[in-house]
Amino acid sequence: MASFAIWPMTVLLVGLVFMMAVRERQREIGLMRAMGSTRLFIFKMIQIEALMISILGAVLGLIVSSGIVISFERMIALKLEIPFTVPGNLELLGIAALSFGLAVATGILAAMIPALRVSAMEPYEAIRRAG
Question: C-alpha angle 89/92/97, rounded to 5°?
């Protein structure tokens, strides 16, 4: 249940990181717009970048977290003094798919506002603000 409270804050935090990344590339984006790139192209470019980063992060997160749980399975059971049971393969696949989807959705949603803001800027304004 706590995850539902933390997720909006995660989207906001990732959005701020994307805002900083977009702001660093503002001059480059302004030059692309000045050379003829459309607002839609800029928006899609940032969203695709967010999608790629999210997919990579989700895959790495699933691999690392699975490795940690498998490695420390015995220690967790001993410390908690309860039997540690791993869900069945189908359940694990469902959890992994949900986690993957949520991670990708978080990245795409978080990049939405920075992508909209920078794609709406006029080329001169983007180049001038970046300097």
Answer: 125
Q: How many CB atoms lie within 10 A of CB 121?
A: 19
CA distance 82 to 74: 10
The answer for residues whose C-beta is within 8 angstroms of residue 34's C-beta and 6 or more apart is: 123, 124, 127
Apex 51 CA angle, 46 and 52, nearest 5? 100
Task: State how far the Cα of 111 lies from the Cα of 41, in Å rounded to an integer.
Answer: 15
- In angstroms, the CA 22 to CA 103 distance is 20
Give yes or no for residue 79 having a pLDDT over 90. no
- Which H or E element spans position 6? helix 2-24
pTM above 0.85, yes or no: no
